[in-house]
UniProtKB/TrEMBL annotation:
<dbReference type="InterPro" id="IPR036414">
    <property type="entry name" value="YaeB_N_sf"/>
</dbReference>
<dbReference type="InterPro" id="IPR023370">
    <property type="entry name" value="TrmO-like_N"/>
</dbReference>
<feature type="domain" description="TsaA-like">
    <location>
        <begin position="3"/>
        <end position="145"/>
    </location>
</feature>
<keyword id="KW-0489">Methyltransferase</keyword>
<dbReference type="Pfam" id="PF01980">
    <property type="entry name" value="TrmO_N"/>
</dbReference>
<protein>
    <submittedName>
        <fullName>tRNA-Thr(GGU) m(6)t(6)A37 methyltransferase TsaA</fullName>
        <ecNumber>2.1.1.-</ecNumber>
    </submittedName>
</protein>
<dbReference type="InterPro" id="IPR041369">
    <property type="entry name" value="TrmO_C"/>
</dbReference>
<dbReference type="InterPro" id="IPR036413">
    <property type="entry name" value="YaeB-like_sf"/>
</dbReference>
<comment type="similarity">
    <text>Belongs to the tRNA methyltransferase O family.</text>
</comment>
<dbReference type="GO" id="GO:0032259">
    <property type="term" value="P:methylation"/>
</dbReference>
<dbReference type="InterPro" id="IPR040372">
    <property type="entry name" value="YaeB-like"/>
</dbReference>
<dbReference type="GO" id="GO:0008168">
    <property type="term" value="F:methyltransferase activity"/>
</dbReference>
<dbReference type="Pfam" id="PF18389">
    <property type="entry name" value="TrmO_C"/>
</dbReference>
<dbReference type="InterPro" id="IPR023368">
    <property type="entry name" value="UPF0066_cons_site"/>
</dbReference>
<keyword id="KW-0808">Transferase</keyword>
<keyword id="KW-0949">S-adenosyl-L-methionine</keyword>
Length: 222
């Protein structure tokens, strides 16, 4: 079986650092799906506007090297506990395929880039190859009473975020909301906790620098 990208994802994140670790955690995060020339056919999207959510099958294209370990260290468990790779959503897998559920916000069928899908809540880096798109179907895909393994006992920890007013003024209000909610999720590697270390990540064409001390993340103006 040969996989070829049908589209590429475009988002505010030029690198994998800082991207929410699951889809839907930042519901306002905007992205768009631009199809490859051979798949720019509006007929392939006929009826898609009737669905609120889509499944994206994509590639962890920023990973370097082959995943060889049968166990990984999920960030949700602090980065120290090892779990089986197939019991996690780790990007380090035998086949570097990701699965995300995103909200379809609107469909443009006639643009210079062909049909374009605008989605919310994605956890994909800018330029990520997409191999397939499938509609989310409630009766088949929703299992509200299902157990979620170790995830059920490891609540998502959010930081308090401080953004200086002069820095905040440089961002449009919608981008400021997305940045704040992204930083609340703590982009740092979970094994690092140096209050003096300055971290940096690209976001919406800007370089965001910050420190974290006592669960307070402060954006630094540079």
């Amino acid at each position: 079986m040969e996989l070829v990208p049908i589209a590429h994802f475009h988002s505010l994140f030029a690198s994998k650092f800082g991207i929410p670790k699951q889809s839907g955690l930042v519901k306002e995060l905007d992205g768009k799906i631009v199809f490859e020339p051979r798949f720019r056919n509006a007929d392939a999207l006929r009826g898609i506007e009737g669905f609120d959510f889509l499944w994206l099958i994509w590639e962890f294209s920023a990973n370097r090297g082959k995943a060889v370990s049968p166990v990984v260290r999920p960030p949700l468990l602090g980065g120290n506990t090892r779990m089986g790779v197939f019991a996690t959503r780790s990007p380090f897998r035998p086949n570097a395929l990701g699965l995300s559920s995103v909200r379809l916000s609107r469909v443009e069928l006639d643009t210079e880039q062909g049909p374009v899908l605008h989605v919310l809540g994605g956890d994909l880096m800018d330029g990520t190859p997409i191999y397939d798109i499938k509609p989310y179907i409630v009766y088949a895909d929703s299992h509200p009473e299902a157990r979620s393994g170790f995830v059920d006992h490891a609540a998502i920890h959010r930081l308090q975020v401080v953004i200086p007013p002069t820095f905040a003024a440089r961002l449009a209000p919608d981008l400021l909301i997305v940045l704040r909610k992204t930083l609340e999720l703590d982009p740092r590697p979970h094994y690092q906790n140096d209050p003096l270390k300055v971290y940096g990540m690209p976001f919406a064409g800007m370089d965001i620098h910050f420190r974290v001390c006592n669960d307070i993340l402060t954006v630094i103006e540079e």
